[in-house]
C-alpha cells in the first residue's frame, strides 16, 4: 500500500485543498510526507486528523515511531486550541540559531539520574536512541532533536519542554546504565503445514461489503485463503481490507485484474496493490489461522446452505411431479368411471328397449292368434250352417249327376269335384256337387252352380258371375 502511495505523494500534496493546511503543515514539520499522502488517499482532513487514535493509525500500517510522533503532535494541537496558544514564528536561520543557542539564564543543574524505561525514547522523533536530558523536568530526547528544539525558540523567550510544556533552559548528557549484552533474536518459525502466501491490499471497499463478498471479488483469479476488512471502534468499516492468496502469481494477477475497477456499476474504484513485506519481528495484524478457519467455515456454511436449497428445490419439483401424476390419475379414473356409467346406462336402455319389443311382439302374436281363432270359429260356424242347409235342401238326382259328369268332361282346367268335399272354400275354383253352392262375384249370392251359372263362368273362379248378373240378361 505504501509503495503505491509514495510515488503519488507530491501530486497529492499539490492537489490537497486548503482545509488540510494544519494536517499538511504538521506532517511536514515531522518529516512524514508519505504518511500525508496515505491519509489524503483515505479522505482524512483536518476535522478528522485531530480525532485519530493509535488503532486508526495502526490499521493504516504506520510504524510505531511515526504513530508516536503523530499522536504527540495531535496532543499539542489540542492543548494549543484549549489554551489559546498560537504557534511561534518560524525559526531563525541556522547561523543565528547557533549564536543564540546558549541560554541567557542557566539554573544549577540537578544531579543526573538513571534513564528509566519510560524515558528510553525521544519525545519528538519517537526514536529509542536518546542521548540528552532536559534540565529541570528531566525528560529525555536525542541530541539532534534537542538542538533543533532549542534553536526554534526566539531570542528573549523561554523554551518549553515538548513533553510537559514546562520551562527548560538547557540539556545535559545522560548517565547510562552499564550496557546489557543484546539477546540474539529468535528466528521466526514458519509453519510447516501452511504454504507460502501472498497478501494484497484492497482500498475503497464499500461499507456494506462483507468478508465473503470481498473474497468473492477475486473468484477465478486464484485460491483465496484469507480475507479481512478493517473496522473502527464502533464496528464500522474503514473501507480497507486485505486478501491473502495461496500463490504469488495469483496475487499479481489479482492486482492486474481488479485494480482501479468498480465492484458495482456505481461504486468507487478499488485500490488493489501488493501488501508490503514487513520485518519478521513486527506483530502481524493481518491474516491468521483463526481468520482463515473462519473464512473456510463461512464458505462451508454457504455451501451447506446452497446444498440445502438445491435439495429443497428438488423435493419441491418431485412433489409437483407427484401431484401432477396424482391429478392425471384421478382424471383418468374419473373418465373411466364416467365411461363405465355411460356403458351401464346404455346397456340398461338397450335391455329395456328389447324387453319392450319382446312384449310388443308377444302382444301382436297373441292378437293375431286371437284374430285367427275368431276367423276360424266364424268360418267353421258358417260352414256348419251351410252344410246343414245344403243337406236339408239336397235331393239325390241321378239325372243331375249325369249332367254334371257330362259338363265335367266338356270343361278343361277345372278340377274334378271330390264327392266327399262338402265345404266351400272361397277363392278355390271347384265344381260343386248338388250339395254345394257357388257365390256370385257381383251380387254376392249363393246359387246352384248347375242352374245359375254357365260353364264358362264357373271356369273364372272367384270372378264368376251368375246368369242374372251377366250383361244383357
Automatic annotation (TrEMBL):
Stored Pfam families: RRM_1 (PF00076), zf-C3HC4_3 (PF13920)
Source superkingdom: Eukaryota
Keyword Secreted included in the entry's annotation: no
Gene Ontology molecular function, alphabetical: mRNA binding; zinc ion binding
CDD domains assigned: RRM_SF
SUPFAM superfamilies, sorted: RING/U-box (SSF57850), RNA-binding domain, RBD (SSF54928), SAM/Pointed domain (SSF47769)
Alphabetized InterPro entries for the sequence: Euk_RNA-bind_prot (IPR050502), Nucleotide-bd_a/b_plait_sf (IPR012677), RBD_domain_sf (IPR035979), RRM_dom (IPR000504), SAM/pointed_sf (IPR013761), Znf_RING (IPR001841), Znf_RING/FYVE/PHD (IPR013083), Znf_RING_CS (IPR017907)
Entry keyword annotation includes Nucleus: no
Protein name per UniProt: RING-type E3 ubiquitin transferase
